[in-house]
Design goal:
The chain has about 130 residues and is mainly α. It contains 6 helices and 2 strands. The protein folds into 2 domains: about 60 residues, Arc Repressor Mutant, subunit A; about 50 residues, no CATH class. Helix content is about 60%, strand content about 5%. Keywords: DNA-binding, Transcription, Transcription regulation.
């Protein structure tokens, strides 16, 4: 069995992946339009990043038509898990509790979110 490939997207690549995860598939122009809603980005920069992501295996590209369609090649949940694990190990000395306390202490949390967290903790406790 092959080990799981480590996914190491940059911050800009994560922004693009986020758009592709939401849309499922998109052209460079469609991704660029979403990105420019929250930050200044040049079209050619978005194009180059997506070409690099294709070379890295982060996205696949359908070239059947004149306009290339990009599709995420990495799973959102797997990527999130790897990035969170790296964060826990590198920033919080391997302590998931420290990460959670930092996240909850530094942000406003709704009652609904707290209820979801409590339910998840209860599920984890029941599994032990």
């Amino acid at each position: 069995m092959q080990p799981t490939k480590q996914i190491k997207p940059t911050e800009s690549e994560l922004e693009i992946l986020s758009v592709l995860w939401d849309k499922g598939a998109a052209t460079v122009r469609a991704v660029h339009e979403v990105l420019t809603q929250s930050k200044e980005a040049g079209y050619t920069t978005t194009l180059k990043l997506m070409q690099i992501m294709h070379e890295k295996g982060l996205v696949t590209r359908n070239t059947d038509s004149k306009t290339h369609i990009y599709i995420p090649a990495v799973n959102k949940e797997q990527t999130q898990t790897q990035l969170v694990n790296k964060l826990i190990n590198n920033v919080f000395a391997g302590s998931p509790a420290d990460l959670v306390m930092q996240a909850l202490g530094g942000h406003t949390t709704t009652t609904e979110e707290l209820n979801k967290i409590e339910a998840f903790i209860a599920t984890l406790k029941a599994a032990k």
